[in-house]
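User: Can you write out an input/output pair for a complex, sequences first and structure second?

Assistant: Here is one pair. Inputs:
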Amino acid sequence: MPPIVAIGPEPEPQIERAVAEGGGEVGPLEHAEALVWLDYRVDSFPDALPDAVRWVQLPSAGVERWLEAGRLEGDRAFTTAVGAYSQPVAEHVVALLLAGVRALPACVRAASWGEPDVGELAGSTVVIVGAGSIGRALIALLAPFDCEIVAVTRRGRPVDGAARTLPADRVAEVWRAGHVVLAAPATAATRHLVDRAALAAMRSDAWLVNVARGALVDTDALVEALAAGEIAGAALDVTDPEPLPDGHALWSEPRALITPHVANPASTELDHLARHVRENVRRYVNGEPLLAQVDTEAGY
Amino acid sequence: MPPIVAIGPEPEPQIERAVAEGGGEVGPLEHAEALVWLDYRVDSFPDALPDAVRWVQLPSAGVERWLEAGRLEGDRAFTTAVGAYSQPVAEHVVALLLAGVRALPACVRAASWGEPDVGELAGSTVVIVGAGSIGRALIALLAPFDCEIVAVTRRGRPVDGAARTLPADRVAEVWRAGHVVLAAPATAATRHLVDRAALAAMRSDAWLVNVARGALVDTDALVEALAAGEIAGAALDVTDPEPLPDGHALWSEPRALITPHVANPASTELDHLARHVRENVRRYVNGEPLLAQVDTEAGY
């Protein structure tokens, strides 16, 4: 008998197909042992779930707000979408890095033939803070670009494709190495990881790319560093505050490139989530470890 | 005895080192059997060279103006910089493709949080017209991006890494396949290769990228196609006319992304040329075939 998997809050044909392809049977929540939840808003989530629900698949990669709201409790597994969107997010990072190095923002703004300050990504060092699934996908995409990769992970365990890996408590040593990509979860430990000191340590030709969460960067310190030309630029897909309010200094800062949380594009999001759901249903059916299970103690 | 290699019009320490490292000896033109010419301007080139000069290395990849001016004559070898700048130019193509697909021009122009129309490069088809050294370098860079590569070459001989290769006389069949990258030499046969019909055949979500020569595109037809939204956009590192004059329609076209002939960035150009010169001097010294020898009949 295939396990009954509920889908909420609304039916979604592509996810229904994924559940069936993974070996589950779509059914109502009151008969289900698993739930795939498709609404990003914490408030949308049911206050109480039937005890029979052993596993909940959430739609987003970052679940800090769900944890804060105490929604990920009870004796069951919660899985996030970590990994599901790694490929598109990593692609966005390469787009942002190359746009920065190639001076594309200045070119977009130009209304006459000029001499923008164009460099190459080749030959540079890219520091990737957080070598989870996004970091690993990014390393794979950068492989042919002749960059040196420095990874920073919690414990500093070597990461494939990285020339060096440092533990998080030594991150201060790598700010000066080159471009910096933030792909770490938002936790108390990573809040304002990129602060005034980090920005001051960075190279003047380096770009900061953030596709993680806005709070990893001290926005006020960044605004000052950009205005002073301490770094070449910042490409931010996430901001703090987010959405970035109209009139914020970053909107008019030529060294800032803001993309409105689109690293995982809406146009392809469901495709990626469906692939992830299919794989997790298959694992659930086969009693294998689920992808991206929440560690409620670590906070992600 | 190492061959005497002259460098002109001015001495250049980095090129002098490259000549020495390749096994040559830098000396005056009147005693030289080879000349490395560093000035891009055709008019700068000596009217007549000593008969003893058996080989001339030119600084640019495209030499159509040198050929038109009849400067590449006499019983000697002329080599271009084809291949020397392939890596940085290919990197620029990836920057432009990703910028287009990821809607970065719209993001740069935005002054408030919005919903730009962002897509992915993954899953798309990239048509590369001209699979010379730039095209091959581009295929290598795109390898991890999960794109299908379609190559168009003069004779259609299969290209490594391309799913299909078509001969130039069947190029009309591939316009509809996806994004189009122009990396073919400017010849009589490629003039206005991308004309009204080609643009009309292209997909509405496709980007046209030109890093070859402006004349490969019918600019007037492109302006119309962009204004009508027939294609998603055009990222042009080369234009016709070039430089693109102030007030030209492309400067104000939101679907156009113009970079002012910087795919091969000035900041790293001499490094790449020096590497090329060193290898060609080594080949000359050893009697091996030179890289990028001009075929004066084919016109490149």
